[in-house]
Design brief:
The protein contains 19 helices and 14 strands. The protein has helices spanning about 1-45, 50-95, 125-130, 135-145, 150-165, 170-180, 190-195, 205-230, 235-270, 270-285, 295-300, 310-325, 335-345, 345-385, 440-455, 490-505, 525-540, 550-555, 595-600; strands spanning about 305, 305-310, 395, 405-410, 420-425, 430-435, 465-470, 475, 510-515, 545-550, 565-570, 570-575, 575-580, 585. The two termini are about 60 Å apart.
Amino acid sequence: MKIYEDNIEQCDNELSEIKEQAKRYSLLRVTSFLASLILIIVLANEGMIAGLWLAAPVSIITFAYFLDRYNKLNERKNSLTHLRAVNKNELLRLSNELDAFPTGSKYLERDHAYITDLDIFGAHSLFQLLNRTTTESGNSYLAKWLTNPAKKKTILEKQKAIQELAPKLEWRQQFEVAGRPFENKESEYQKLLNWFKTPEKLLPNKIIYFVGAFALGVIATTLTILCIIHIASDDIKYYSPLLFIVLLINFFILKKLTPLAEEIIDSTHNNVQTLGGYQMLAAAILSEKFNSKKLIKLQTNLYQNDRSATDEIKQLRKILEVFQLRGTKRSDNNKFYGLFNVAWLFDVYLIILVEKWKKRNRDHIRPWFEAISEFEALNSLAGFTYSNPGYEFPEIKEEPYHLSFSSIGHPLIKASNRVCNDFSLNERGQIAMITGSNMAGKSTFLRTIGINLTLALMGAPCCAKTPKVSEMIMFTSMRTQDNLIEGVSSFYAELKRVEQLLEQIESGRPIFFMLDEMFKGTNSEDRYKGGVSLIKQLNELNAFGIISTHDLELANLAGKHLIVANHSFNSKIKKGELEFDYKLTDGICTDFNASELMKKSGIKILNDIEKLK
């Protein structure tokens, strides 16, 4: 889309200007420092004390101003760099160049009802096309929607939220930019949530600990000053033993608190930057006005007693950043922190501050994170919607067993190569039998239906015109393979998938199934017998769906007291070359091409094969 290209050009132009400005401010910063240094040396040599008192603060203020301007330019440069990347990624998605995006492979489940067959996760997957989240929990939210079809009420709420977010291009991109600096940072999200549940140790007696730490700190500091003052006199022998005793008391207090301090650091040190990401994302959410019920509810969840999640998370992050200076047995300790810690018992104050924050926000932190994560998932679907204005949101039908699409296409195929078809099923027990020659598009069509149904049932628009679907559970059996480790043949793996399908149907909810080449791992007689039996069984259950096959005998079941409709994909041979139009037609396939493909592979096909029988 041209708007993404325009945004990239605008970012490039501003980045060029910032680069020049940064050079100037960098030069001014160095110049002001050197000039100030020379001025102070000259004034000192001339003994002009009044001039020194005036020059020093002016020099510091001037240097600080140029440094501040330089840092702000650098922040703007980083923001523009991320914004440029966001727009570049949109162009990559539009051209279906998805290799650079996270695959979501960790969400793959071998026994899931459909995700392994439909390229939901993995290389060149729907997850890569949709995902615009920056946090681990945002990733998980989107993955959950892809793997768990929603109910009608939830779908409609998501549709309204996505339709409101989609045109807010500038806000959506700034929202994504807010989280990008913290993207892919090492995080222990669940460990952090578990830590929030742990009980407070010092907080119940905070006054005793606070007063005690303050008193010991004052005494230690006073004795240290007295020791310095009297370092050359005999009086030091009175103060130094007392200082040693106080520091020894502090040391034992810190030793007792070490396990608690290290528990806090170990539970949070990989999440300090993650908290920064949540803080920036929450700030972006709270800065915008929304109208849809779902977005308002999520935004409201980011407030607690007139305190926003942004302020609270920022406060915790700052406390933890200071705490990280302490270090642990497994990490380097900051020597300055250690020195002042022994004198002032910083651990006591920081532990109390952390525990106070934790007690105040324990019941709110998970809802905050979930609200931000759901916003990220909705933002992903809104970005997908905006980038594909020709896609349409489905009508969610009340009556069960309904599925219809006009001009349905596969969103992971480039628009220039995509061939669209019309398709519908609207009756319990109805089965569409699809026959076709090799490479004519049967399996791709099944995946086209499946991936668009996944989009529809998560609240997203479909790559189709006038889509209409009812609530349903989808089940597929398309990529069954041998498993050498478990000693499972592909035929047995397929039987296990059929067993799973029948178990799903027993749940009572409407099931939409897609079976690609049933029982292909056995002989033709058993394949036919098993196929007919399963089709008859499925006709009578709470299910409807699609079966693709090369077996013409199965296709001839239409009209034989079974609810079967025949469709096909065909190929033609022109000038010795196979041609495919990938268009779905009514009826049984009449053009098969296996023999022609075998010839092209070097196999000499016998024309008088009957004589060898």
